[in-house]
Amino acid sequence: AQRDSYELDLVKAQLSKKTGVFACEEYSAFVKGESIYLGEGPSGEETTTPLADLDVSGTMGNLSAPGQTTGSWLNTLTFLQVWATVHEQGLFSNHDWTVKADPDAVFMVDRLRSFLKPHTGEGANLYVRNSNCWVDSIELLGPLEVLSQAAVEVFHQGRESCSKKLPWHGWGEDYFLQHCLD
């Protein structure tokens, strides 16, 4: 969640109603800077997982600039840090699927579970392609990213190599994630 924005209020509301990621078996909420109290959860006090402030907020892409693939946030560095923390925490290894959901994404856990059920337990390196709007372009949009346990591991093992080999500096995190997993 973005500190000092409407996103934090959304996250707190979702926790209080046990919706969005808070309807999952386990969850983490991330914020740049110090941890923030979110409210009371099933196990007591819930706080955000702090991330280093990489001073990249506010950087927007420009589709007319060479090498840029988004007019949205250039947030790859932030989400590389999020995914590294997800791996370090290890919660993903307790589950078949890991979901990254933006605070303002509509995310209905039961519907996603039904959709994923035929692919659960396969152990394969999978991610959900959630867009087919653009031919030969992005098929994994950032508001809701769904990765199998194996895909989280594959991404973790390959993210440094992808950072070196891919021309990602004009990309959003979703485009980077898709290209690294492909």
Written account of the structure:
This protein is an alpha+beta fold and 182 residues long. It has a domain of 122 residues. It is 33% helix and 14% strand. The chain has five helices and six strands; from the N terminus they run αββββαβαβαα. The strands form three sheets. The chain has a two-stranded parallel sheet with strand order 1-4. It has a two-stranded antiparallel sheet with strand order 2-3. The chain has a two-stranded antiparallel ribbon with strand order 5-6. Strand 2 and strand 3 form a beta hairpin. The longest helix is centred in the C-terminal third of the chain and has 17 residues. The protein is globular, with a radius of gyration of 16 Å. It starts with 5 loop residues before the first helix and ends with a helix. The model has no long low-confidence stretch (mean pLDDT 89).
Tell me the strand order in the biggest sheet.
1-4
User: How far apart are the first and last residues' alpha carbons, in Å?
Assistant: 27 Å
Uncertain segments:
none
In terms of DSSP E residues, the strand content is 5-15%
Number of strands: 6
* Major β-sheet profile: 2 strands, parallel
How does the overall form come out from the CA principal axes?
globular
Count of helical stretches? 5
Percentage of residues assigned to helices:
25-40%
